[in-house]
């Protein structure tokens, strides 16, 4: 018996949509999979082992080869810049990254501060814009930063726009659209290519059908 393929799944909002896609692709994930507190879940019927990680950590597990595959937001992929193959746009968890501020925000050259959960991405973005800013790394509730004067702008995810609206913030620029991606460890891809190719094909078919 060969080892099962190991897939790193992000806990949180991507999880349900990713699990649905896998089920639609014919992988028999048990119902308790969705609510379990277990961090390693074997599904021998599907020849798969799942490891459940923080969304931002999924590319790390895949890069190190402890997971053959994973599901990660494009935001995470840009921020983490890990050495993994991005093989399929799953077209789930759609949102985008934007710069936002209070409506009375005025651009200043004196010590501009930007709060974000994505310091690398934000640094790169402002560099491309030719603007020098100080990035303040936060781990969540980013919209709070301009409200309390920690930063004058933020770089964060926007989906419905509700969080910006309810906190009286306005969007200044759109940076990049985001969806979740299927990622693969380069060595696994070479060693287990038939099973990985099969999984990619099955998921690609479901994504295509959902789009039609
Ligand atoms: N409001 C949103 N709507 C749709 N997709 C989102 C939204 N916020 C984030 N995402 C996508 O879902 C991914 C995971 O987000 P989630 O909020 O579950 O975890 P997280 O904020 O990274 O982790 P945690 O809250 O556990 O620190 C993000 O990397 C992004 O691709
Ligand atoms: O446009 P919306 O639909 O309002 O979604 C955007 C919000 O969702 C995410 O936050 P999350 O809920 O993950 O909380 P966090 O700030 O703690 O990361 C993101 O960071 C925004 O704050």
Automatic annotation (TrEMBL):
Domain ATP phosphoribosyltransferase catalytic: 54-204
Protein EC: 2.4.2.17
Single Gene Ontology MF annotation: ATP phosphoribosyltransferase activity
BP terms from Gene Ontology: L-histidine biosynthetic process
Catalytic activity: 1-(5-phospho-beta-D-ribosyl)-ATP + diphosphate = 5-phospho-alpha-D-ribose 1-diphosphate + ATP
Alphabetical list of Pfam families matching this protein: HisG
Predominant place of localization: cytoplasm
GO CC, alphabetical: cytoplasm
Compartment(s) where it occurs, according to its Swiss-Prot or TrEMBL record: Cytoplasm
Gene3D superfamilies: Periplasmic binding protein-like II
Similarity field: Belongs to the ATP phosphoribosyltransferase family. Short subfamily.
Record's protein name: ATP phosphoribosyltransferase
Protein source organism: Alteribacillus iranensis
């Amino acid at each position: 018996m060969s080892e099962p393929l190991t897939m790193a799944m992000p806990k949180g909002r991507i999880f349900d949509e990713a699990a649905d896609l896998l089920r639609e692709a014919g992988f028999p994930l048990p119902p308790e999979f969705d609510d379990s507190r277990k961090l390693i879940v074997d599904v021998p019927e599907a020849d798969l082992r799942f490891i459940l990680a923080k969304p931002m950590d999924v590319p790390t597990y895949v890069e190190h080869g402890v997971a053959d595959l994973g599901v990660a937001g494009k935001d995470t992929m840009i921020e983490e810049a890990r050495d993994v193959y991005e093989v399929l746009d799953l077209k789930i968890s759609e949102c985008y990254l934007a710069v936002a501020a209070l409506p009375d925000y005025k651009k200043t050259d004196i010590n501009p501060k930007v709060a974000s959960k994505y310091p690398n991405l934000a640094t790169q973005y402002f560099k491309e814009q030719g603007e020098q800013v100080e990035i303040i790394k936060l781990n969540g509730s980013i919209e709070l930063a301009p409200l309390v004067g920690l930063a004058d702008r933020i770089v964060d995810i926007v989906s419905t726009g509700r969080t910006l609206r309810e906190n009286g913030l306005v969007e200044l620029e759109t940076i990049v659209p985001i969806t979740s991606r299927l990622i693969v460890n380069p060595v696994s891809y070479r060693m287990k290519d038939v099973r990985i190719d099969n999984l990619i094909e099955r998921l690609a078919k479901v994504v295509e059908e959902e789009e039609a």
